[in-house]
Amino acid sequence: MSALQLTQTQSDLPYIHGFSATEQARLVRQARFSEAMVYRDVDFSGVQKLLEVGCGVGAQTEILLRRFPDVDITGLDFSQRQLAVARQRLQGSPEHGRATLLHMDAEDLDFPPASFDGAFLCWILEHVHSPERVLAEVRRVLKPGARLYATEAMNATFFLAPYSANLQKYWMAFNDHQLSVGGDPFVGAKLGNILMRLGFRHVETKVKTWHLDSREPHRRQQVLDYWTELLLSAADQLIEAGRVDAELVESMTRELRLLRSDPELVFFYSFMQANAVV
Fold first, then answer.
1. Around Cβ 268, how many Cβ atoms within 10 Å?
2. Is-contact 147 276, C-beta < 8 A?
3. pLDDT tens across 215-230, in order?
4. N- to C-terminal Cα distance for the chain?
5. Can you tell me the distance from the alpha carbon of 163 to that of 58, in angstroms, rounded to the nearest whole number?
6. Segment (H or E) for 209
7. Which biological process terms from the Gene Ontology are attached to this UniProt entry (predicted)?
8. Smallest Cα–Cα separation from 274: which of 122, 75, 62, 117?
9. DSSP one-letter string for 124-190
């Protein structure tokens, strides 16, 4: 793939955060920060060949290798730039020999049926044009009895108090833009329906929530810092698309600074995790 083709392909991806080195580093911090909540109910014991769809910079791959030492992982991503970073990062890990990273379209997997006995997807279906097509392909390449875990966004749940008008306006623009470029920031709530339509069995969904107030001030501060970074990661794209202007970004940032010092700050956000069996 030429540099021009790569640029064109990536520009068509509904990935609202971009592919900069800053964003790549943010993804690693995000994975580590949310690890406890994401993996609390994930169990790949007995799995030998695991498919990770949307491995990106290898942030989740690194965690999977550490948590499940008997698993060989095949990670795939549509971005060559992300894969290059993932390979470089994992090269320094003693577990890198158990990971194979491939450039592939998740909507058209280049594997024969029944190739894997487990699958893991995390923060990826919100960024693809057809989550159902991706999950159909994943089901095709899983063995009977294999288990899938999918962790996804449900952005309608985001709430901070005191109410901050510019922050909410920016957040609505964030979600509207993601929808307009072919993503779905609300796909987490739809996972149960999609998995049932595709014929998965034993479909379960769990709501995972950050609800932080004055009872946990340190953790609340950590979550707010994490989310501030996430919000600002999309600012350049939103400005370029005409969804927001620099003034709104500055006003939102100012509100976030005020919230940071407010002892009555309440932070609330829920995401979804589904698991199912082929």
1. 15
2. yes
3. 999 999 999 998 998 9
4. 34
5. 36
6. strand 201-212
7. methylation
8. 122
9. -GGGSS-HHHHHHHHHHHEEEEEEEEEEE--GGG-EEES--HHHHHHHHHHHHHHHHTT--TTGGGG
Segment holding 210, helix H or strand E:
strand 201-212
pLDDT at position 35 is 94
In this structure, whether the domain defined by 3-277 belongs to CATH 3.40.50.150 is answered with yes
Tell the residue number behind the tokens 């034993």, with chain if given.
202
Rg (CA), the chain: 19
* Burial annotation 154-193 (CB, 10 A radius, 16+ → b, else e): bbebbebeeebebbeebbebbbebbeebebbbbbbbbbbe
102 pLDDT exceeds 50? yes
CA distance 142 to 139: 5
User: How far is Cα 64 from Cα 226, in angstroms, rounded to an integer?
Assistant: 21
Name the phi and psi angles at 197, rounded to 5.
-60, -35
Residue 17 confidence (pLDDT): 55
Task: Look up the pTM and report it.
Answer: 0.90
Tell me how crowded residue 147 is: count the other CB atoms within 10 A of its CB. 21
Distance separating alpha carbons of residues 17 and 271, to the nearest angstrom: 18
Using pLDDT thresholds of 50, 70 and 90, give the confidence band for residue 248: very high
Strand partners, 103: 77
Q: What is the pLDDT of residue 134?
A: 98
* Structure tokens given for 125: 């279906």
Kindly report the length of the chain. 278
Domain boundaries, the chain: 3-277
Q: How does pLDDT run across 189-206, given as a tens digit for each residue?
A: 999 999 999 999 999 999
